[in-house]
Structures are given as structure tokens and as C-alpha cells.
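Standup notes
- DV: blocked on the single-chain target, sequence here:
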Amino acid sequence: MNKTFKNLLHSGTDLLFGPDLGGAVGKPRVLQFPINDVCNSRCQMCDIWMRKKADEVTPEQLRVLIRDDLYSELEAVGINGGEPTLRRDVGDLVKVLVEELPKLKSISLITNAYSVKRVIAGIEAIGHACDSRIGNPVNLDVMVSIDGVGEVHDRVRGRKDNFVYAEQVIDFALESELVDSTRIGCTVIRENVFDVENVLAWAQQKGVYARFRLGVPHQRLGSDDGRGAFDLSYEGKFHFCNFLDCLAMNYEPKTARQQFYRSLRNQIAYGMARSVGCVFQTRGATLLPKGELAFCAVESKTLGSVIGGGQSNDLYFGNLDHLKEIKAKKCSGCQHDYEAFPSKAERVQKIRQRLVNKFDKTGCFSSDNQASRFRRLSQARKLYSQRAKENLIPNSGAEILLCGWYGTETLGDKAILAGVVKVLRAAFKSPRITVCSIEPYVSDHTHRQMPELEGIESITFEESKRRIDQKAFNGVFMAGGPLMSAVDYCLEVAELFASARNAGLLTGVLGCGIGPLYDDKRDDFVKAIVEFSNIRVFRDQKSVRLAKDFGFGAEASSAIDPAWWWLGDQEGDFLRDRNKVLFALRDWSIKEYGLALGLESAKSLKAEFEAQIIRATEVLVKAGVEVVPFCMHKYAVGGDDRNFYRKLFKDFPAILKNLDSRHRKPSEDLRVFQECGAALTMRFHSCVFALATNTPMQAIDYTLGGKVESLLAEHGELENLNSFRGFNGEDVANKMIKQLGREEQLRSLDRQVVEGAFSSLVDQLKSFSA
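- DV (later): unblocked, structure below
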């Protein structure tokens, strides 16, 4: 049935789907038309503002040249500059396009909004021109450049109060009946790269769609001169790559744009070639201000002047060798935000997916359904059953692979990794350690942040599997973190463990927790990891009991969470601010923690909890306490805490000013904990950090009787545990106010316990060394 369904969809003809625009070069469907080279902006990104006004194509000249057969298929024209509204005849130019291009569907205007009155007048003139075609008006899209919020935008654009002017233009466009869609465009350079989250949050609050692009050297704008504005630092590149992940996963609705963001991320993070197409490779052209023709504006040479008409088609198709040269030498490295028309295959796939989502109630059409994952697990168990006897780990120079949820690591995961690495280096002499990562560029950044992780390599799951099969490692370990059935990557780890056991490699779970568990079938992924392990050391007794329930607990033991071993090494003087409360909260995932309650009950519980957090905030603020929203996690996968805080505290701008969007070193984040007078903790490791730093806390049991409760029970802190169900914000806030003045010694973990657990695990690992 599935095969028949696929064949039916892929049997579409040109009659149904239209021609495939992803192939050979044809008449342009898209025209980029910078109508002037003049700008009133002293922008950091180009020198166009220094140019003097030159002869520009007139409406009369445009009418003649646009009648050339080359433009007969045009559907979209982008009007830009310079600043296009500086031309008083901008409406006349657009009216010519509307009158002469029968297939024209949309006009897009890009403006920097430097002069509110002039820009609004230009938009109105263009809007009236678009509406002048009776019965078939042309859509008008207005994009306003916003390159930061407030002063950041003004610095990038080189003019005071430009952000205020831009906002006024956006407000006009959003309300105007002449404008069909309004967007903002943010060009990311060195000056504003750390403000991109603020731009997105501002746009969302404004109710306007935001598009982001990387500032790149541009031939037409004269910015291909090696200027430093485009030269992002390593930290800037990492920050922007993570932001692109967030856009693709959590914001951007259009598939083509999601693909572009992922492609750009891979270009920056991994040096990969561009993986998305470009309309200017096959169906795009650029008409320059003086009436000259080019392919794209970024790399194309001027093909020649088309003033006078009758030459465009010959110039365009007579210079295809130049277009071929651009494709061969430039396109793979191009980071400009051009997109391509979707190919026929992509359009068919999109229609197929819509039908699947609408009609497929059983999952029989899905290529990534649960049945396929369980088959893979069965194959992994079969592989495991054929294993050879495990080899010992050499005492010196061992090759060790560490698995976990790396590539999405929380602050706690970073501390875990450093703790496990410390154990391995104590157990074996000069081990070479590699981390299996969901996203290696993220893990590489973690390694750069922490001197304890110097020299560690990050590789993908695919590369890990290949090296395991080649027996390139001596041991494969799950390096801390929760084994929970909601995490799909549990299956991938189980497969790696099965391959490792089959290759005769030692495997083990080092300081992991188990849970939450909620689905008998998906729980098998967790059980498999425990089953395939030679060494089973968990972070608490509850996890040991669960391992025994699985039937694999005979040799299981408990230690402590490995993060303690890193935290115990962090020293330094600090001054605690007893008027400051740290909120270490997270978005409560219904998928992970609320499925057993039923969807509607879980939604209601979540909404009530968030309302109570707001109530707690109000009580604290009224008491004169400063609230600091603190992020344990700042990556797209796993729930970015920054997004949660922006939504939760949208009516508390003073609190959002304390939200730090930068990716700080773990040691710097730890200091924020140390300097606060009390903490409201939610994520498991925010509780660990509070205990390790003797920070008074009120903890939230968001797993509904799981790991947070177990942690506080083991440390004698249950009186500071608050249930997620029935959470009372006012009560908790008043408890924290009392804690701010508390002077007595808190019950932090005994250092001898930390050192004893460390030595015990080291000895256990040494028993497997040759």
C-alpha cells in the first residue's frame, strides 16, 4: 500500500506539477532590480552611500527594455538599491512593470527607512501602482532592514534614531491596505551577531516575520574589499550557527528557508559546500540602475547595457559560459540568502507529506515510524548476541569513545563530561578520548570552553559506528546524563553499544540516571543500553533499582552524578548578593513528562504552573528582589531556555534585561550561581549546582516524582522540594525571601563522599585494564 501510494504521487506530469525549474537555464521568473546606487545610510556593510547620483534608467527607458522577450515569464521583481525610495519616480517605475509584465505576481521592496515621510510616500506610490491592474492586482511585500534592537541597529546603520524611524515605517506597513505582507530583514555582521535573538524576539512581539542573512562581500555594493565588518570571530560564528539551528527548528515555517538556514550553518560550522540551490542559477536576472544586465548581483559581471531594448535576450543567453563559470567556481561557497524554486521532486514530496499528515492515521506511510525503529533495535540485539569476548583496555594510550546527549549539551552535561573525563584520566594513562556528538560543532565549542576537555575530538554517530566496526576504540561508554525513553537517540546509542560488544570492546554506563520512562516499547531503547553494558554505574539508588527491574542489575552500583567531580575542582572568591534571586527554569515538555496525564490535563497543568511562576515573580519584585533568569540550556534541541523566558516574562522587560543570551564558559555560569542569594531550580543539574555552591534553593519536581525528588532526598533537602502539581507561586516566593537572609551552613555534599565515589569508579575501571 505504501509503495502504491508513493508511485501514485511520483507519477505526476508537467500538466499536474508544471515544469521542473531546477534544471536547465530558462527565461527568468525573478528579477532583482536595484533602481539606484544612492543611499542616505553610513552603513558599515557597504560604501554605496559615498557614491554620487548617476544616470539611472527612467520609466520610459524601462518600458522599452522590459518588453524584450527575456522578461515575458517574470513573476516577481525585487526593488532595492541603495535606498529605492530616494527616487521620486519609484511609483512610476513599478507601474511600468505592472503594465508590461502580464505574469507579474509580486513586487518586493527593501528599504532602510531613513526618512519616514519619504519612505511612506514611496510605499504608497508603489502600492497604488500594484493595485492599478484591474482585476489582477500585484501583491506588494515590504521588507524593512532591522539590524539590531535600539542602539545596536543605529550603530550598524550609522545614524542615531534610525531604529525608531524603521519601527514607524513597519507600523505603517502593517496597517496599510496597500501592503500585502510586511517583513524585516536582518543582515548579520560582527557588530550585531550577539543581538540576533533580541531582533527575533522583538519581531515576534511586533507580529512581523523576520528573515536573517549573513553579511557577505558584495560586488555590486562595493563591499568585496576585505572589510572587517563581515569577519566574525570564532565566538560570533558559533553564536550565529546555533541561532540558525533555532530558526530552522523553532521559527521558520517555510521548508526552503529552513533548508537554507541549515545549509548556511553547515557552511560556517563545518566548511561544507552550499547544499541549496539558487534561483539565479537558472531562472533569475539582475537589472542594474544604469540599465545594465547581470545574472546575480553577488558574483556576476555586467553583461552589457540593455537601454534601447531588443538586447536582453541575446545578452542573457549569449553569456551562459559566464554563468557556468560562476556555478563552477563560486556557487558552492556562496553564503548569500538567495533561494531556488523547488524542484519537481521536492514539490511531489511536499504534497505527499501533506497527504500523509492528513490521512495517515496508522503510520503505514511514514518512513520514520516506530516500527522501523523497533526493527533496528531487534537487529542490534541480534548483533549483540553474536558478540565475541570483550578485550581489556590497555593501561596506557587507550582509545575511548564517550556517548551521551552531546551536541545538545546543557550546562549540566558539560560538567558531567568534564567529570567523566577526569575519572578516565585517573584510571588510564594518557587515554585518547573521543566524543560521539549529535552536532560536533557544538561539542567542539564545549571543549574549547573548558581546559579540562582540551584535546578531545568530536565525531558524528555515523563516524562513531564506522570506527567501532574498525575496532578503533578499546572502550565505549555512556558518559552520564539521563537514559530516558523520550530521547530518540537512545536507539542510536544502543546500536553503538551492540556494535561495540560485537567487536569485543568494553562498554559501560558511567554515572547515568534512568528515567523518566513512560512507554513500554520505547523503554526498550533504555533497557538495551543497560543490557549491552559491561559496567553499570548509576548516579542514584533509584536508577539502580530500575536497572534491577530490567533484569540487568546484578552488578549495578551507584555513585554520584559525575558533575560533582568537576564542581568540586572549581574554586575562587565570590560575593553573594542577598537581594538577588536566580530562576533556573525550563519549559515543561508535555511530550517528555506529561503524556501519562492525558494531553488536555497536561496542557492545563502546564498553563497553571506558568501562571504561578508569574505570581512568584510578582511577589519577589514587589519585595524589592532582583530576579535573574538563568539558562542551563541554550541550544535548539532540548528546549532553549532563552525562548521560554522571553515568552514567560514578556510583560517584565526589566527581568528580560537580565537574560544573558551569550554562550558563556561553564566556569562563568557557575559564578552566577555563586553570586545569587537564592535559586528557584527546575532542571536536575540546576539543583546540583545549587547544592554544590551552597546556594539556598526552592526546587521544582517537574518530573513528577523522578530524579529531582531523588536528588533532594539523598541530600536531606526534601523540605525545599515543591511539587509541579499544585505549585504555589506566592508561597514559594515567600520561602525564598526568608532564605535570602539565611546564614546557617547548608547541607552540601560531603567532600569525602565525592572523593570516595570518584576513587571507587576509578578502581572499577582499572579492574578492566590490561
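- Follow-up: The first strand starts at residue 30 and ends at 34.
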